[in-house]
């Protein structure tokens, strides 16, 4: 029952209107089942193969979110069922999702991942580049994807001022891009286990929390989690 208790604590800490994505990547099906049995339905995964295996093993009313970097050649495997792809960081990826969603006869919700962190290794659009793309070839012309908002990851640092700066920049980008998309553009996904209270303070409407619910990940066992 430890997962259920931790889940309850995280839920209780969130204000109304903030959605919790329980990040279950590398954790076994049994752990997700415990959270599911406690009433949670939204889970985030970062590897398509692991996501597909868990989708097959767990109830079909789970809302699966792809939150990790996604290669275009992996989109087809998750397109039939994924509810939201949060990590859309290029025009090529968006166009691939549109094509695969149309092939499945679905509309897939996406978030535009914006790069705000100081680490260059983290993915995401430069907001200026994204705005130029939208001015020339808007996502509105892709009928099988629905742009719901923005996602981002803050700099990995203990300096709260730097993290706050990143979150405030993501909120600025969210507000800047909203006029392009209209009423469905309602999601600002930022904040993880170690920084989500600050993210909520800065305007987050969706947080991605894993270790506070499921415990620290054992990456040495990651190959076993879907067995």
Structure write-up:
The protein has 227 residues and is an alpha/beta fold. The chain has a single domain (2-222), classed as Alanine racemase (TIM Barrel, Alpha-Beta Barrel), CATH 3.20.20. Helix content is 40%, strand content 17%. Strand 6 (145-151), helix 7 and strand 7 (187-189) form a beta-alpha-beta unit. The longest helix has 22 residues, at 160-181. Residues 220-227 have low confidence and may be disordered.
Instruction: Give the fraction of residues assigned to helices.
Output: 25-40%
Termini Cα gap: 22 Å
Strand portion = 15-25%
The CATH H-level superfamily is Alanine racemase
What is the annotated CATH architecture?
Answer: Alpha-Beta Barrel
Low-confidence stretches: 220-227
Number of strands: 8
Structural category is alpha/beta
Q: What key phrases describe this protein's structure?
A:
alpha/beta; TIM Barrel; 8-stranded parallel β-sheet; 9 helices; 8 strands; disordered C terminus
Can you give me a brief rundown of this structure?
The protein has helices at residues 2-12, 29-37, 48-57, 75-78, 91-104, 127-136, 160-181, 196-201, 211-214, and strands spanning 19-23, 42-45, 63-66, 84-88, 108-113, 145-151, 187-189, 206-209. With 227 residues, the protein is an alpha/beta fold.
SSE layout and pairings?
Blueprint: H1 2-12, E1 19-23, H2 29-37, E2 42-45, H3 48-57, E3 63-66, H4 75-78, E4 84-88, H5 91-104, E5 108-113, H6 127-136, E6 145-151, H7 160-181, E7 187-189, H8 196-201, E8 206-209, H9 211-214
Parallel strand pairs: 1-2, 1-8, 2-3, 3-4, 4-5, 5-6, 6-7
